[in-house]
Amino acid sequence: MSKVILVLIDGLGYEEAKAAAGYLEHLAEWELAAKYRVEGELPSLSRPMYETLLTGLPASEHGIATNLFTRPSRCENLFSLVKNTGLTGAAAAYHWISELYQRGVPREPRLERYQFDSPGLIRHGIFYAADNYPDLCLYNDADYLRRTYHPDFLLVHPSGCDYHGHLYGRGSREYRTAAAGSFDRLSALLSVWQEDGYDVVVTADHGMDELGVHAGNLPEQREVPLYILSKKVECGDFTDSMVSPLQTAPLCCALLGISPAAGMRPLTLRMKEN
Ligand SMILES: [Zn+2]
Asked: What angle do CA 247, 14, 8 make, to 5 degrees?
């Protein structure tokens, strides 16, 4: 059993990661990390894809069809599996994550902001409501949770790429700079997290198009990266074929050493034999 940090970079398309994630690309090139190309599920919207990544289910099964559905998740998810196994979950994330997984917590950003020793599915959380919350602050929030509570599963969810992508579009200096800045902050933490015993998974919910829109079926809206830093996986560049984001939840279960939920698909990513 080991600990897992899942980094969900909001709005980061596959090509943008390739252009901005120099250190993770280096680790994959030197076969110190695994790199996959993910054909995102649809719709390429945040809230449905948060639920897809955390439950391993497509939108037609988990039912979160749009960003307008503010009800809590009704499905087994990584936070419920972690809690039910007696492990500790934590999140530094946009407040929609609190809305999805923290039953009993008032849906008001003021009250959702800090949640420590919470009765919800996420034991410890720091949630932001401003779309332009700086990635630097978010990574620092996440690392505070790691250092203070030593969670078994930690979701890290920066939104700087999505914010700048909406304002300026794919192909803009601002979007590219936001992605590079986010990866810069992340790269500074990777070795610290690994030395503390964490496997690290880095992916995104959706990409962005030139007009600053994501919702539909364009490759730039739905294709995202997946990097895995773990001794349990085969390392290298496996981007010659697409993989599904439905793999993210069972991957995290395998890394954590817990059983996946009944609806999760079989894991097809390249794992090392025990
Ligand atoms: Zn967005």
From this structure: 55
